[in-house]
Amino acid sequence: MLDRGEVGLGMAAAPAHGTDHRSRDLFTPGYTCLFNPRLLPLQTPISLDDYLAQPHLLISYDGRRGIVDDRLEARGLDRRVIASTTHFAGAALQLATLPALATLPTHAATVYADTVGLTAVAPPLPMPEYAVSSIWHATVTDDPAHVRLCNLVAARAARP
Question: Is residue 54 in some structural domain?
Fold first, then answer.
């Protein structure tokens, strides 16, 4: 869509892919655990044993395996997944009625916790950070309107 001029600016948790694409890192989130304290009364911070003992909502692009599973497997551990969604946008709705833990990007978890009344806590295992970037086609790099839009997006992304 960038190449066809259908989108002037995209945002992704991935670097620019094509040689004609440019990008600007906006922020570097990590991961946060999210749960409904009315349905899953946990002590915080969550210990690794408590984390593993709870049911989990899996969030992954294919609905079968996610980054948490990779991290746990590297330590010889696994978790009990009772439901899944292919995008973290569906997690808040599911956690409103599901007694489970979800591990998702911090920027989304914070918004969902505030909006739906969920509890957000640090995961009890090391999780990576990653860059969320704005991406555009090189042909618009010097366009004043594009520069203004990029700067507005970057300024908003920099706010807590």
Answer: yes
Same domain, 39 and 77: yes
- Strand-strand pairing, 31-35 and 101-105: antiparallel
Any idea what the Cα angle at residue 12 is, between residues 8 and 15, rounded to 5°?
95
Q: Does 84 reside within a domain?
A: yes
Mean pLDDT, to the nearest integer, of 23-36? Answer: 93
- Residue 12 neighbours by CB distance under 10 Å: 13
Q: Say whether both 89 and 15 belong to one domain.
A: no
Each residue's pLDDT tens digit, 68-87: 999 999 999 999 999 999 88
Domain check: are 102 and 144 in the same one?
A: no
Mean pLDDT, residues 10-39:
89
